[in-house]
Amino acid sequence: MSTADTPQPVDVSIDVEYLTSTLMEMLRIPSPSGRTDAVMQAVGDHIAALGLPFDLTRRGILRATLRGRSEGVHRAVVVHADTIGLMVKRVKPSGRLEVVPVGSHSARFSEGAHVTIFTDDHDRVYTGTVLPLKSSGHTFGDEIDTQGVGWPYVEVRIDEPVESAGDVRALGIEVGDHVALDAAPQLTRRGYVKSRHLDDKAGLAACLAALKALRDADLPLAVSAQFLVTIGEEVGFGATHGLAPDVAELVAVDNAVVAEGQNSREELASVAMLDMTGPFDYHLSRRLHALAREHGIPAVRDVYRHYRSDAAPALEAGIEARHALLGFGLDSSHGHERAHVDGLVALARLLAVYLQSGLTFDDWDREEAGPLADFPSLSVQPADPEPVDRTVVPDEHR
């Protein structure tokens, strides 16, 4: 199928109520990396309600298929359902818990967090709070402000009458138990969403809203696509497997960092051009931004220094595909996170438009390799050679 045969994408209406209610549902399901089965059940229920065929891998990655006009599955949209969290490192003699982070995040933002402690006995689940070692100003005075910041300086206080390590173990709590940071989501009157774990539950909700919009509008897809929901992105091995063998384009969906020096904004979608693993695919990234412009979808381009997404492990695992990253603006990522419904709607619209479009180079990208004569090189990415002689001679010496 040539580019001329591809139907033009149509901007779709996003069901905002579905997006926000799905987001709140997902946020309230604890899913730190390594303990994600419950959230994947919820995701699967939504995919089934949308009428999409899907399965799960042995470890629990979900793979749904969106049938298009292509015979093979040539495109993948990847989002993750796992979040940052904690794990019990040691049961202290005092009856408090030493914890270590699951995923990369600062203890500074865990201080004061309410948590849920999961034991091996599913009927024995406990609550608690992450506290600095010196948490009482009435006892420690100014030392509460001068003590160090880091995981050795915090502990979990369990909401049970415990005063010793033996008391804790009698509850069934052991080293290696998962501790989930409670999300505590809020949707404000101005459309802001405040919660932990918007990374990447907000991206997941935007993806599901885009799929629902395509189904409701009954729009044809030029290319069959795979929707992949991963469970290990926060610890670096999200999209390492599960992708269809013919995938030519992979678009990861994750947060777009809002901070000083960044171009991303909470009310916008973002197209990443580079992260810590290097540049994203030149042509696919620019095409995504062009689709946003063509359809009046508010989106910006951005570059991230300390960031990687599901696209990185997929490439490291050997996939031969163009890769890109779409995001929703997120303030204080992995901290006290905040996004805006407008940014999530913009992301969902851009995803829906992209899924209707053809491949970046419809003829070339359908095969894993081809001859140099067919390679779209100088016509799409020219680079004039440098001059042979760059010597600058002053006029008086000529």
Automatic annotation (TrEMBL):
GO MF annotations in UniProt: aminopeptidase activity; metal ion binding
GO biological process: proteolysis
Keywords: Aminopeptidase, Hydrolase, Metal-binding, Protease
Compositionally skewed regions (Basic and acidic residues) per UniProt: 387-398
Domain of life: Bacteria
Region entry Disordered, spans: 372-398
NCBIfam families on file: trio_M42_hydro
Family, similarity comment: Belongs to the peptidase M42 family.
Name of this chain's protein: Peptidase M42 family hydrolase
Organism of origin: Kineococcus aurantiacus
Taxonomic path: Bacteria, Bacillati, Actinomycetota, Actinomycetes, Kineosporiales
